[in-house]
Amino acid sequence: MDPLPFTHALLSPAPHADIPDDQRIFEPFIGSWVLDVRWYGPGEELQRQEEGEWHFARVLEGRGIQDVWIVPPRGRREAGAYEYGTSLRFHDPALGAWRSTWIGPMHGAVLTFTARRRGEAVVLETTEGITPARRWSFRDMTPSTFTWLHEAREGGEWRLVQSFAARRVVA
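Given the sequence above, the corresponding structure tokens read:
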């Protein structure tokens, strides 16, 4: 099967004109990134560290942003895999925010989020009914790096679960 018709139908060269400039919060991530992924225990002590890769692209006539997150990187998959998953996000003008769904097939995960800019960060919070509540934040963004944090709400407090240090490899 030739994947090009599907790829050409999915990918978009530019954001859709209906998305206001101030709502294009995921545009800075378009491209490919290498990751230093860290997992933390209940006392936020480092428990595990691995390399990964993350790829972002505009999709669906530029109305959405999709990513593919892979740990460990494809070149090292023979050693075992943690996850090979995807998020699909789209701007919802009625909500004034982005809706996002993460699908992690290796762990049977499907999580839904609402995303907004908060100051200089992009923050995704799980929708109602997901337990524990989760917060994913893109922070410290530059054209070539960013930090991503995964926090879980436990006992009324946010606890760091995972962090990524990302470095751009392709714009």
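The radius of gyration is 16 Å. Try to locate this feature in the token string yourself.
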